[in-house]
Amino acid sequence: MPKSNSSKLGALRVPCCYQGGKQRIASQVVDHLMKHPLSKSNETVYYDLCCGSGAVTIELLNRGVEPQRIVMVDQSSWGAFWKKIGAGSYDLDKLRQLIDEIPEEKKQVKAHVSLLAKQPINDEEAYIYPILQACSFGGKQIWRENNEWRNAFFRDYWEPTSTSKRRSPANPMQPSPLTLFKRIEAISTRAQGITCHQMDVLEAIDLMQENEKTIVYIDPPYAGMTNYGFQLDIDRFVRLYLSQQKAPLFVSENRPLSENAFRLDFGGAKGGISGNKPSKHDEWLSEFDGLLQ
Prior knowledge:
The protein is about 30% helix and about 15% strand. By secondary structure, it is of the alpha/beta class.
C-alpha cells in the first residue's frame, strides 16, 4: 500500500454533508476494508457502490490508494459529479461562475438557490447539484427527476436571540461557497482517474470484472429512514451479487446482515456482532466472502 500523501497535500474532504453520508465513519469502514488480505496488494480494485458524496472513496484516496484503482457507482446526481471528476472533464470555471453568483449577504442565499433550483438543469447537473445540496434543509437529499430538482427545500440564515440555547448563527450554506469550491477544486485534481458509472447498482453487478483482487463496498439508502429519490432492496442485491460475483462484499446498514458484522458507532466505538447495545446512530458493516472461499 503506498504511503498516504494527505499530510503533504492536505486531506481531501467530501464536498458537503447530507443525511445518510458516511463522512463520520468512513475511517472505520476503510479500516475494515484494509484488514482484508486482498488489500495487501497494490493491484486490488475497490468498488464504492451507492457512493454518494464519496466519503469512503475520499478516505481511500487520503490513504494513498491510486484513483485508477477505485470504481464508483451512483444513480443520483452524485454519479454525474464523480463521473466528470474521474474523467478529468469537471469545469471548475463553470462552478466558479455559479459560486460567484451566490449573494454575500447570507439572508439572501435561500432565495437565490430557490430560484436556481427552479431553472432547467440541462447539462449543468454536476455543478448545480453540490450547491443545492450544501443548502439543503436538514441535509436531506435533493435529486434530479427528468429536468427538474425534487425535494429542494433550503435553509434560512438564523441568528440566536437572547433566549436561544444555541449561541452561534446557523448558516444557510454548509460549507460556505468558498470552502465548497476549494474542496471540489482539490478533489478534481487528486481524484482524476477514478471510474464512475451513473447507473443502478443492480445493473452494475454485470459490469464488475472477474478480478480476484477486488473488494466491493456498498452503502444503500436505508428504507424508510430518510427521503431519497432512489431505493434499493439490499437483501435482494446481496443475493444477486453472491450468485454472480466472487469478490468480498462489505455492506453498510442499520442492522447486521451476516454473521461477520461489526457495529460502527458514530462516536467511534467498534465491536463484533455479539454483546453490543444498539445506539441512536446504529451502523453495521457486514462482510460477505462471496464465492472466493
